[in-house]
Amino acid sequence: xxxxxxxxxxxxxxxxxxxxxxxxxxxxxxxxxxxxxxxxxxxxxxxxxxxxxxxxxxxxxxxxxxxxxxxxxxxxxxxxxxxxxxxxxxxxxxxxxxxxxxxxxxxxxxxxxxxxxxxxxxxxxxxxxxxxxxxxxxxxxxxxxxxxxxxxxxxxxxxxxxxxxxxxxxxxxxxxxxxxxxxxxxxxxxxxxxxxxxxxxxxxxxxxxxxxxxxxxxxxxxxxxxxxxxxxxxxxxxxxxxxxxxxxxxxxxxxxxxxxxxxxxxxxxxxxxxxxxxxxxxxxxxxxxxxxxxxxxxxxxxxxxxxxxxxxxxxxxxxxxxxxxxxxxxxxxxxxxxxxxxxxxxxxxxxxxxxxxxxxxxxxxxxxxxxxxxxxxxxxxxxxxxxxxxxxxxxxxxxxxxxxxxxxxxxxxxxxxxxxxxxxxxx
Length: 427
What we know:
Layout: H1 12-38, H2 41-62, H3 68-86, H4 90-100, H5 122-129, H6 136-147, H7 152-158, H8 163-180, H9 192-211, E1 215-216, H10 222-238, H11 243-256, H12 282-298, H13 303-316, H14 325-338, H15 342-356, H16 358-365, H17 378-390, H18 394-407, E2 409-410, H19 411-423
Parallel strand pairs: 1-2
């Protein structure tokens, strides 16, 4: 943690960035501590936001306290108790709190009182935000708000919905937690693997939406990929021996390493085979390769680890021509056995085509036309177009690219697919 003089000597931007990072790291810990102590998720979250605002105003001039987490918990607790005392329904609320905590805890601690124990409730808060009682969209929104520290406006912009809509979504999620009586605590040990799987799915969904936005003018939404990586890093620190947590972190790092080369200056999409690999983030690649190599050697195999291993093979190839497609194919065959789904089959078909020829890959695509999860998806049409182009069936490939362009609502992807179709136009 930073001490009182930690921001001294920094430039304004550097100090602001350091302070923002510290507050985002501490926010879920403080919120978890308050919810554990008082209940009332919604009220606690409001109190934490006020405490974070107070810190953002006071700490740049007065210095960061030696126990910043304790400072935030104290300030937020005072805000919470002040709010309860000033409301007309004070007695009812205090009765509720009294049933949840010893009477001595109803008063916020004094400033000179010993700081609360340094318990990190981030993992518990993640499990709470990803509780199966919430819808997948609510899980994502609440995780980004309560654990990620993004504002409602930032989340709304990332998912291309009005701020009022996102505010309602988050509010309903918090109300659902309250009305469902979901306890603040880690799930029972026998439920944790399934619940952790949901947490990982939510964080992966956040990353994917940031890496390839499903709609809008931009291919990337950097605030989402960065936040997903940050949260999985935190989860990996809390669960260092879990192979799938490590696998997901490696997968995100190895995938995001290519982001600098995925678009041109005008925002045009650059496919993997055409990317300037000198622009890839080598630090992320080295970290991701080391992480997945270590994990595969010691942990039970899982789908995120296999996907990370595939990404590592791509990233370690000096050029597209040097890619070890035979190894990638073997990994996809294993992935289809471990975690079969239509998107895995789609990628498997590409690997088959690269090893055994485009006709073999096209044969694998046929059954996907009858799969409701992928039939009509622009990526199925795009992959079929690519394999048809490899097979020399130019007219059919062009028709598939055009169909894919019509189906996507991502402007960069649409422009790329239209350009592929245009290159195959006769004459």
